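ok so dumb question maybe but i'm new to this and my supervisor (M.) told me to 'just get the structure for Flavohemoprotein' and walked off. so i did the thing. is this what she meant?? sequence i used:
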Amino acid sequence: MLRQDTVAIVKQTIPVLQEHGETLTRHFYQRMFQQNPEVKPFFNPAHQKAGTQQRALAGAICAYAQHIDNPAALGDAVEQIAQKHVSLGIRPEHYPIVGENLLASIREVLGEAATDDIIDAWAEAYGVLADIFIQREGEVFQQQEDTYGWQGFKTFVVEKRERCSENIESFYLCPADGTELALHQAGQYITVRIPLPDGSTTMRNYSLSNMPGEPWFRISVKHERGSVEGTPDGVVSGYLHEKLKVGESVEVAPPSGEFTLTLPQEPEKPLVFIAGGVGITPLMSMLQVALDESPADRPIVFIQAAIDGAVQPFAEELETLNRRYDNLALHVRFSDPGADDLAVGRCQSSGIVDAALLEELVGDTPASYYFCGPTPMLRHVRQLLKARGVADRDQHFEFFGPAQAID
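this is what came out, is it supposed to look like this??
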């Protein structure tokens, strides 16, 4: 437990953190990478370049300060971060590195305003937070060992590659030692670690897009191109698309993640999935489980949003499911359909997902929603659902990349 004077001092720093948070976190990452380059493989350089990692950390620090006297309020955020840390192999010995650089950054950025009392208070607060993460992450590592039979990274072999769209390729990965895979939870992701030319390694998380219980992990990877000037192309996605061949090996960590499917207890309650671009990957796994395990009369709506038919993933797979299950309503909407996309029936409508579409497909029946896609889409769907009066407990979503505010 934190001392009351520590709580009071940390809360007093909230206005300063709100004003200077991103400056502080930018300085923190620069300092840490310079002082402790061994931690760089844990971070995505594209997120660093775009500033999303810095904004996410600044938001997390402010949230911790605001709830420092009630850390239970941060339970969902702690779980999300702990799962991500485990997926990357972050261990207790990494926390002193972060703490040392964070405290030094507070002093260096704030200057004389960072009094000894403030530094001491944040040192104590960071220690308590680090202990929370270390304990939870230890539990998750043990759960992975118990469920999947390994921690850290294990060698897998590419069994098959399959083109999923113009810019997305599916990779079917099987354990090199021939062991049978335990059931993952629909919505989880795995971590892939690849070698770099300088002899180091880097890691990325990819959602599992296949039905649990199959003899492989399937990841469906978009070949990322730098969308912001100066932002590099995806290092790992480029490696997978351009270099990783069938029969070759790659290192994989066990499934992680808290964005998982929970079927509504009410058998008649509809499930609605809203997928944007490559954000469809965890929802494909969820959809297959929902169709397999739900009552035959549960309405399941799947809305796929894409730019056009060229970059629409899983078109044939979705159509096969749509024909097989009478309770599935599939609607494909392209924001910029090609000349023949509508004519040949690749999509049912054009534009963005809007209130009229949800009214048409769902009506006023209370439903449970799962959605995933680019951050602007998440913000838009979140506002649509709030306007429809959908309770937070019925809204489930995941960011690809650092979590950001969407309200």
